[in-house]
Design a protein that fits this description.
The protein is about 20% helix and about 40% strand. It is an alpha+beta fold.
């Protein structure tokens, strides 16, 4: 029997990995963008970590990880997936912070996210504000432009409640101010948080970055929207599945 959730999930495109993932165990993550991994075949390799956050709860030595082979760049491997426990169950979580932008672009461009449906054009990485680029700029004749900032989420400290950020993000707070300025100028602005794993709800990690927490509250008060979607992570790819509530 196919549930309504299954039908909805089937409508979202899967973002596949560029190559078949290779399993191993994390030895250590260091210098933010590097990780030593022992592959299941015994080889020890260095992988690129496309993630500038703290990766709290995702980078403990010994964790089960999967790497993606690369054909370009200085390192032949990229860390793609890690297995963690969420609500007591082993769960796959994506660690590549570029994935949510690709998922958001595909879903918004196809009109699959109700909050952002009905626009004629979707442009990415458009300059705005003070030396910033908006992830998605949506436009249609007769409608205000919509500025959409996408954020990657992969922090779980309280069961299935996902949180952002996992470290201090001055850049993130700056974006909230600039989105507020766009609303004040007559435009539409929104935050789109994408969780690379299952989530029952979403919250701002105010204890990890109080400045971001205050900026988020001010932006919401100014009319900046906030939406959060969770994604299903497998060893074949990542796929948006459902919108989750934002809680204080």
């Amino acid at each position: 029997m196919i549930s309504d959730v299954d039908v909805a999930a089937a409508a979202f495109p899967v973002l596949p990995y560029p190559a078949t993932l290779v399993p191993g165990r994390l030895i250590r993550r260091y210098k933010r963008f590097l990780a030593d991994v022992r592959l299941d075949d015994g080889r020890e390799v260095v992988a690129h970590v496309a993630n500038s956050g703290s990766m709290m709860g995702l980078s403990t030595p010994g964790m089960r990880v999967w790497l993606c082979p690369k054909t370009s760049g200085s390192l032949p491997w990229s860390w793609a997936v890690v297995e963690v426990e969420i609500d007591g169950r082993p769960t796959l979580v994506g660690v590549d912070t570029a994935a949510p932008n690709k998922l958001g672009l595909a879903a918004v461009g196809a009109g699959l996210l109700p909050a952002f449906a009905g626009y004629d054009s979707v442009r990415r990485e458009v300059r705005y504000g003070v030396n910033s680029r908006i992830d998605l700029l949506l436009a249609s004749a007769g409608r205000p432009k919509a500025f959409v900032e996408i954020k990657n989420v992969h922090l779980w400290r309280r069961g299935a409640l996902a949180e952002f950020p996992d470290a201090v993000t001055a850049r993130g707070a700056k974006h909230l101010v600039e989105l507020s300025n766009e609303v004040a100028a007559g435009g539409r602005a929104a935050m789109l948080f994408i969780v690379q794993g299952p989530a029952a709800g979403f919250a701002i990690a105010r204890d990890l970055d109080p400045v971001y927490g205050r900026a988020f509250d001010l932006a919401r008060a100014c009319g900046v929207e906030a939406h959060c979607w969770s994604a299903t992570v497998t060893l074949e790819g990542v796929q948006l599945d459902r919108e989750v509530p934002i809680v204080d």
